[in-house]
Structures are given as C-alpha cells and as structure tokens.
Write a structure and sequence with these properties.
- The complex is a heterodimer.
- By secondary structure, chain A is mostly beta strands.
- Helix content of chain A is 0%, strand content 49%.
- Chain A has no helices and twelve strands.
- In chain A, the strands form three sheets. In chain A, strands 2, 5, 6, 10, 11 and 12 form a six-stranded mixed β-sheet that branches. Chain A has a four-stranded antiparallel β-sheet with strand order 3-9-8-7, with no helix packed on it.
- In chain A, a hairpin with a 6-residue loop joins strand 10 and strand 11.
- The radius of gyration of chain A is 13 Å and the shape is globular.
- Chain B starts with a strand and ends with a strand.
- Classes of the chains: A mainly beta, B mainly beta.
Chain lengths: 112, 112
C-alpha cells in the first residue's frame, strides 16, 4: 500500500540553524504531497503543498520540492526560530481524493 | 470566518459511558474525517464521510460510531466498547475533489 516515511525525531536545534526533515513516499500513482505542522495542544495546520513533480511548496521560510526521481519531499528552512518548535507531519494524498497517508511526525525543538 | 470547530476542548468521562464529540464546519466541504492521536504518535483514521448520509470505516473504527445527517456536522461517539478511549481526537474536512484537509483544534478525551 501507499506509505510515507519520515525522519525520526526528536530533532533539537539552536536558533538560526538550518533545518532538514526528510520525507520519502512510495512511488505509486501521482500523489499530492503536504507538510502539516502541529503546535502543542492544537490541531494540524497546512504548512505547504505540492501537487506534481518538480513543484516547490513554500511558506513562512519553509520549502519542500516534490522530487519524483528520489520519491522525496524533504522539508527545509534556512534559519529556524524558537517559535518553529512543533511536530511536523509529511502526508501524501491520492488523486482520487478522500484519504491521506500520514508520516509518523517529527518533533522539532528550537532552543534560544 | 470559515472554519472547523470541535467541542469541547477537554472532556472527562467515567469508564463504561458513551460520549459524543462534536465537529462542525462552515466551509461547505463535502468530506469529513475523524482521527485519533496518542501521545508522541501520528494520526490514525477512525471514520470518514465523503457525502451526507454516507460514511466508511477507517483503520481503527472498532468501538466508535458516527453519523452524517447534515453536511456541516459529523459527530463521533466513543462507545464503552472502545478499550482505550483516552486520546486526542481531531476532526478534519476537505472538498470532494481535492484532498487538502482542514483540521479542527481537537478534543482531548480522558476516561477516568
């Protein structure tokens, strides 16, 4: 079946460090890919998305590029802030709609 | 403001009691979803509904029930048959043809 594999956490960085959270997906169909963020005690918020190969999603300084050749959608940010501390989820959505496949989530802690 | 609401934010129940969690959306979305999240883990799909008066089991439907009598509402009942109901429950919605999901703020259920 379809799956998403995320880099295991937790990840701890100092403020202004470079962030990469790896995400790979199974190469079946033509999925859309998403990164969602969850702050403590809250629901998930869409961070960015890409719907086809070579698309780059970006938001709030975060970026991810849909790479079909490596089946990856790695999340990057050049300079993290303390306020970026949260859990990040990589997801794939199928072209027929409805269900999403979730990665396990990566806890990020940014220290001042 | 358009959005998705869940109530209450915190809910306490005694073991053996059924409890119903509310989810309402005013985004005019056709599809709605219920997820369960346990501490430090990803999300697991309980039930989803793609249209009014129709719903399907997700990956962990046992011990739960839902109804979809109105487009805006998708309540989840946690029954006494659910062996370990204490968790964080998240509701989401999406359009039928595009799979980006919008999440509510969640309900934390604690069974004493």
């Amino acid at each position: 079946g379809n799956s998403v594999t995320q880099m295991e956490g937790p990840v701890t960085l100092s403020e202004e460090a470079f962030l990469t959270i790896n995400c790979t997906y199974t190469a079946t169909g033509y999925p859309s890919l998403f990164w969602y963020v969850q702050y403590p005690g809250e629901g998930l918020q869409l961070l960015l998305k890409a719907t086809k190969a070579d698309d780059k999603g970006s938001n709030k300084g975060f970026e991810a590029t849909y790479r079909k050749e490596t089946t990856s959608f790695h999340l990057e940010k050049g300079s993290v802030q303390v306020s970026d501390s949260a859990v990040y989820f990589c997801l794939r959505g199928e072209t027929s709609g409805s269900r999403l496949t979730f990665g396990e989530g990566t806890q990020l802690t940014v220290n001042p | 403001d358009g959005g998705i609401t869940q109530s209450p934010k915190y809910l306490f129940r005694k073991e053996g009691q059924n409890v119903t969690l509310s989810c309402e959306q005013n985004l005019n979305h056709d599809a709605m979803y219920w997820y369960r999240q346990d501490p430090g883990q990803g999300l697991r799909l309980i039930y989803y509904s793609q249209i009014v008066n129709d719903f399907q089991k997700g990956d962990i439907a046992e011990g739960y029930s839902v109804s979809r009598e109105k487009k805006e509402s998708f309540p989840l009942t946690v029954t006494s048959a659910q062996k370990n109901p204490t968790a964080f429950y998240l509701c989401a919605s999406s359009t039928a043809s595009y799979n980006e999901q919008f999440f509510g703020p969640g309900t934390r259920l604690t069974v004493l």
